[in-house]
Design a protein that fits this description.
four-stranded antiparallel β-sheet, about 55% strand, single chain, seven-stranded mixed β-sheet, mainly beta
């Protein structure tokens, strides 16, 4: 499977961005989701969605970020509202073995800057 992110950019605090992830190849029963990593920090699981549409969010983004997918377009989205400087990171689209499971495929990432 290939995962290609887009939609990153620079935004002021309080603003919004929507990230997209185009998935090609076999998804099957795998979970899709988003991680992020900022310099000097560990990767953080941000949000995930299962094939049954169960959703999980990191506490740090609950109420501000929304994960969704368009199965017809094989595209995963992450709507990010009320962005904070601490949300600045490289965001990665991932395929995982469960909503909190092992990630076996990573996209290349898209950069989000919040000033």
């Amino acid at each position: 499977v290939q995962l290609v992110e887009s939609g990153g950019g620079s935004v002021q605090a309080g603003g919004s961005l929507r990230l997209s992830c185009a998935a090609s190849g076999y998804i099957g029963s795998y979970c899709l989701g988003w991680f992020r990593q900022s310099p000097g920090e560990e990767r953080e699981r941000v949000a995930a969605i299962t094939r049954a549409s169960s959703i999980s969010y990191a506490d740090s983004v609950k109420g501000r970020f929304t994960i969704s997918e368009d199965n017809a377009k094989n595209t995963l989205y992450l709507q990010m509202n009320s962005l904070k400087p601490e949300d600045a990171a490289t965001y990665y689209c991932v395929r995982a073995l469960g909503i909190a499971g092992y990630v076996d495929c990573w996209g290349r990432g898209t950069q989000v800057t919040v000033s």
